[in-house]
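This part of the workshop introduces the protein records we will be handling. To make this concrete, we reproduce a full record directly below:
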Amino acid sequence: MIELDLSGLKCPLPVLRTRKALLSMNPGDQLRVTCTDPLAGIDVPNLIRELGDMLVEQCQEEKSITFLIEKADQPA
């Protein structure tokens, strides 16, 4: 599993870095992303949907949001 701590970064950096990480991963790989930007709660799930990957878990803490993302098989 790849861990990506994006705490302290403001929009659009969390989404851009998450996209870059996801595009370099293999199907079945998992990525855990931690963000403190409240907009990431909207932007990251939208990115995951756009890329066709799977949001396994989203956990909202007091000051952070953590996403567990699984890289999907690429369409043929």
